[in-house]
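re: that chain from earlier
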Amino acid sequence: MRFDLEAVLFDIDGTLVDSTPAVERTWRTWASRRDVDAAEVLRVCHGRRTQDTVALFVPPEQRAEAVLELERLELEDLDDVVALPAAGSLLARLPADRWAAVTSGSQRLMRARLAAAGLPVPRVLIAAEDVTAGKPDPDGYLKAAAALGVDPRRCLVVEDAPVGVRAGKAAGARTLAVTTSHDAAELGEADAIAPDLASVTVAPAQGGLVATVR
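^ sequence. v structure.
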């Protein structure tokens, strides 16, 4: 499949960076400390902002400290965070003003994970604290497109989670899902589905970019 576009907007965890072991470890540790069902947390947390997940399990008066506790655990667990296949080479081929990242994690944590994985931090990084509502709300992707000065309808959103795909579609963007964390059946709303970024090429074109998914 071919997409004619002006910019690519990437999710980070599960799309550019493999942090799944760290994510699962930290949520399990957090859940055990708070007598919360870890399996239920892991069922709903992927692709969502920490504060949105925490709000499902913790009383309002405890949520701020619970979010800070989880982020401390995450920042201490970066040893096996790595780049997903072809992420580095794909980003290296993209002009800096033609891509951005939109993540449900915090600025501090996502910058740390990108560094641990040896990937560049984009000029435009929209994180959890930069939006009024997390995915599947389109706020993050709309803000990223605006910061790049492009129409969101001329963007390709690359995601690994159903809530992220829905956010991209709600922003009016075309969507590509990679099956790095979810089965293809769960990502069926996307315009295209690929195993990972090794199946994707992006090249300059007249006035923009052309992305091809094999």
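The longest strand covers residues 200-205.
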